[in-house]
């Protein structure tokens, strides 16, 4: 085989990174594979714009997706355009045409994984998606292959760099949410519309993919409970620190005899936890298997070259498989159908910050509400006093979410409770 030809769908940040990495490592890739890897066509939305910007590549660009999807000489289609439509249609058509597909598209994989895997298996082509979670961190193939001899107890990760950057700034400098969001947008870490990041949706899509692989059962985006960081304040971060903890936006996937729990939300973890030291835009994923024990994977979770690194790794894998007539050998690992636990049935610890009237009997009435709802209190600390009001921080023992929600609902209706300022879940020992 003289060369394996590739078609790129998209030439944004990641697409350009893939082109650059393939070219800068051309000799190494050839020596590894014994064949050339050649980008034959690149689908773009505005042909004139890209031909003017990159005149040396003008013959590669096309606005017609058929020139990539239907070209019999193109053996691998790399989708880096993002979004679900029309990317999903292009990818399915490419596989139906016998082409292996590589994608960095977490939205598409998290929401349409069943259809994508079914098509890849029917056609006997590769469908690889390492770059869809945590950028350059090699977690997908690690879970599917290197750690396949394990049953996983949990997968917990910082899998959104934007929110980790924001929480790091809030923690280090006491800056308010609005200020650090503006800074993140100015630096290009946050989009003009930051909803997907700050509300936890981006992390939820990634967690759906990780949980599906770890627990061998299909988990989709809609199965994941998502809560963002918009209600986190510098005072909550300060109080968490006083308790010996750090607030991180975590994706948490666990399994027990009742099913799988998958949730994304701000979480207080002990300062001694490996994830507590992961700051700025970095990602990290902590996994625990029954055979291997605890492991942590750390690195850049986004960006031109980290994501391109993962894509090119998948390209090399796909080319090897084509060269050895062995495509489609790693199929979907979701061969079980396990229930996903509703958020009300998960058990964890809770930090609750309340503003109450500062007078005798109030603390006792608050404690009684918690006790009546089956919530065991680990500690109650009175913090600031403002005129006739007092701020309380309650830490609970492990309890089901529905009991906390019931207690909070009752507390909100009490005349002596002026505000439930925040409720944050906590993991670990403090």
TrEMBL record:
It comes from Carboxydothermus hydrogenoformans (strain ATCC BAA-161 / DSM 6008 / Z-2901). NADPH binds at residue 106. NCBIfam families: PRK06349.1 (NF004976). Its cofactor is a metal cation. CDD domains: ACT_HSDH-Hom (cd04881). Keywords: Amino-acid biosynthesis, Metal-binding, Methionine biosynthesis, NAD, NADP, Oxidoreductase, Sodium, Threonine biosynthesis. Its EC number is 1.1.1.3. The active site is at residue 206. This is Homoserine dehydrogenase. GO terms for biological process: methionine biosynthetic process; threonine biosynthetic process. It comes from the Bacteria. The lineage of its organism: Bacteria, Bacillati, Bacillota, Clostridia, Thermoanaerobacterales. The gene is hom. Pathway: Amino-acid biosynthesis; L-methionine biosynthesis via de novo pathway; L-homoserine from L-aspartate: step 3/3; Amino-acid biosynthesis; L-threonine biosynthesis; L-threonine from L-aspartate: step 3/5. PROSITE patterns: ACT, HOMOSER_DHGENASE. GO terms for molecular function: homoserine dehydrogenase activity; metal ion binding; NADP binding. InterPro entries: ACT-like_dom_sf, ACT_dom, Asp/hSer_DH_NAD-bd, HDH, HDH_cat, HDH_CS, NAD(P)-bd_dom_sf. Residues 351-425 form the ACT domain. L-homoserine binds at residue 191. It catalyses: L-homoserine + NADP(+) = L-aspartate 4-semialdehyde + NADPH + H(+). Belongs to the homoserine dehydrogenase family.
């Amino acid at each position: 085989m003289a060369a394996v030809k590739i078609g790129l769908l998209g030439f944004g940040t990641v697409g350009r990174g893939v082109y650059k990495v393939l070219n800068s490592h051309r000799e190494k890739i050839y020596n590894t594979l014994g064949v050339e890897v050649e980008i034959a066509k690149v689908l773009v939305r505005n042909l004139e714009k890209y031909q003017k910007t990159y005149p040396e590549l003008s013959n590669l660009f096309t606005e017609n997706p058929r020139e990539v999807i239907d070209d019999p000489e193109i053996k691998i289609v790399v989708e880096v355009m993002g979004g679900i439509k029309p990317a999903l249609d292009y990818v399915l058509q490419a596989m139906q045409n016998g082409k292996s597909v590589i994608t960095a598209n977490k939205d598409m994989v998290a929401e349409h994984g069943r259809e994508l895997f079914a098509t890849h298996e029917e056609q006997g082509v590769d469908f690889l998606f390492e770059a869809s979670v945590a950028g350059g961190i090699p977690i997908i193939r690690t879970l599917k292959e290197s750690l396949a001899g394990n049953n996983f107890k949990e997968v917990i990760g910082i899998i959104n760099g934007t929110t980790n950057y924001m929480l790091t700034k809030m923690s280090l400098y006491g800056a308010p949410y609005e200020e650090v969001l503006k800074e993140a947008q100015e630096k290009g870490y946050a989009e003009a519309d930051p909803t997907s990041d700050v509300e936890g949706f981006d992390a939820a899509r990634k967690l759906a993919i990780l949980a599906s692989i770890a627990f061998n059962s299909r988990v989709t985006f809609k199965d994941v409970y998502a809560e963002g960081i918009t209600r986190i304040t510098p005072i909550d971060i300060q109080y968490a620190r006083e308790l010996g903890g750090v607030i991180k936006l975590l994706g948490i996937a666990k399994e027990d005899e009742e099913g799988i729990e998958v949730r994304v939300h701000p979480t207080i973890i002990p300062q001694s936890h490996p994830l507590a030291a992961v700051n700025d835009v970095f990602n990290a994923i902590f996994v625990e298997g029954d055979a291997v024990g605890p492991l942590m994977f750390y690195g850049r979770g986004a960006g031109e070259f980290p994501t391109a690194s993962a894509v090119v790794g998948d390209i090399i894998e796909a080319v090897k498989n084509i060269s050895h007539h062995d495509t489609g050998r790693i199929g979907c690992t979701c061969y079980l159908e396990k229930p996903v636990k509703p958020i009300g049935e998960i058990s964890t610890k809770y930090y609750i910050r309340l503003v109450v009237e500062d007078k005798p009997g109030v603390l006792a009435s608050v404690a009684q509400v918690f006790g009546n709802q089956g919530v065991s209190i680990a500690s109650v600390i009175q913090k600031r006093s403002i005129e006739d009001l007092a701020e309380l921080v309650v830490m609970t023992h492990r309890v089901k979410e529905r009991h906390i929600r019931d207690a909070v609902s009752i507390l909100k209706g009490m005349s002596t409770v002026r505000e439930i300022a925040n409720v944050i879940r906590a993991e670990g020992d403090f």
